[in-house]
Structures are given as structure tokens and as C-alpha cells.
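note to self — DONT lose this again. spent like an hour looking for the file last time. sequence + predicted structure for the chain T wanted, 112 res
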Amino acid sequence: SEIMIPNIDPNNQTNHGGEEPNLTEQELRSKLKEYINFIDNILQPELVRAVSEREKVEFEIEEYNELKVHVQMFIQKKRRRRRSGTKSGAHHDDVGGDVDHSQTMNDDDNDA
């Protein structure tokens, strides 16, 4: 979504003191109200959406990191079993039961 910035008159330049010489107090209050509305109605909701999206991405990254750890642990277990002689076939799995890992990962698979 495109952010609409309040209209600023480029010909209305400020002096070195930061005051706008051509604006009345009422016009200044009006501009201030316009900027407050812009912040409240445009920038703040955009910030909330951006933070929410960032949190979703961080959560997904954490889930993928956890999955990576589990896959790495699985690969290490498979390597240890290969070295100890329980290369293939059904055996007891820590997750809960007898599992034939030869169907899940071939011995010829490259390790990630």
C-alpha cells in the first residue's frame, strides 16, 4: 500500500528560526492536526502491520531452525547406526516405535 504524505507547499519556505512566516496560528494548528492524523491513521497502522509481519517471519525462521536441528540429529543418528552395524531394516526409534528408516533415507543419499 502506498503512503500518502500530507501536501506541503514548496513555496512556503521557513526562515532560520524554524518558523513559517506566512502561516497564522490557526493554519499552524491545522497543519499540526493534519500531521497528527497522518501519523495516527497512516504511519502507526503501517508500523503495526510491519511489526506483525516481522514477528510472523521470525516465528517461521525459528520453526525452520528447529526442523534443521531435528534433521541434523536424525542424520547423526543414522551415521552412528551405520557405523555400529545397524545399517538398515526395522529398529526401535526414540520417537515411538519400530520404524524402517531405509524407506525414509537411502544409504546413498548425500548428507546435508
